[in-house]
Write a structure and sequence with these properties.
This protein is mostly beta strands. 5% of the residues lie in helices and 66% in strands. The protein has one domain (2-218): Porin (Beta Barrel), CATH 2.40.160. It has 1 helix and 11 strands. A hairpin with an 8-residue loop joins strand 4 and strand 5 (92-106). The longest helix has 10 residues, at 2-11.
């Protein structure tokens, strides 16, 4: 248990030395998964992005998933963001179209989840194409599997690259999440995520620390 917590803390520190002021954000969210058949499912979500001063943006998304053999999943989705995704002008709307491939490796007491995603982000004044890769490691904190009423740990590392602009920019996201599997297909997760944004950009690197809270349910 202690070694697991140390790994979670280390994940948030390996990004490198802090050089700028860190922006603090609370990111609450809701997620719902609906199984259509043995092979098809839908995921819907809503999230807000709030600083101590203001709610900067909100997002709503919908994904259709197709389960493939050997732990693979193919997904396509749409996200709408209302807020200020690129500049400081309030009320900007972003439309995002996503293609995604996932792969899960199951082990005796944990599992690795790989996610490869391609985003097209459209606004009135700008379009971005962004590639993303995320690696997640999930482990029950009691016993050999995650049962109802029991906690679990989720560590994630994601890298992002945007090449449709000059110069190209990158981003890293490191997360440590504490979750609880509840009754009836519900679960609650809370954790910390640290981001380095605009790597390689002319304006310098931004640093963001997020407190995430997500309630999800499925049927």
């Amino acid at each position: 248990m202690r070694s697991t917590i140390r790994v979670a803390a280390l994940l948030l520190l390996i990004a490198g030395p802090l050089q700028a002021q860190i922006k603090e954000v609370w990111e609450p969210g809701l997620q719902y998964a609906h199984r259509l058949s043995d092979l098809w499912s839908l995921n819907a979500g809503a999230v807000a992005f709030a600083t101590p001063e203001v709610v900067e943006r909100t997002e709503a998304s919908l994904f259709l998933n197709r389960r493939l053999p050997q732990g693979w999943t193919l997904s396509g989705g749409y996200l709408m963001r209302v807020g200020t995704p690129f500049e400081s002008t309030a009320g900007i709307i972003e439309h995002r179209f996503t293609a995604q491939v996932g792969y899960v490796q199951a082990f005796e007491r944990s599992r690795l989840a790989h996610r490869m995603r391609l985003d097209r982000r459209d606004r009135i004044t700008r379009t971005q194409i962004r590639a993303r890769y995320r690696l997640g490691w999930e482990k029950p904190l009691r016993g050999d599997r995650i049962d109802a009423g029991e906690p679990y740990l989720l560590l994630q590392q994601e890298v992002l690259g945007t090449w449709s602009e000059a110069p190209a920019t990158g981003e890293t996201r490191s997360s440590a999440v504490w979750g609880w599997q509840l009754q009836g297909g519900r679960k609650f997760e809370t954790g910390l995520q640290f981001r380095f944004e605009d790597l390689g950009g002319a304006a310098g690197v931004d640093q963001v620390l997020l407190l995430t809270t997500v309630f999800s349910w499925s049927r």
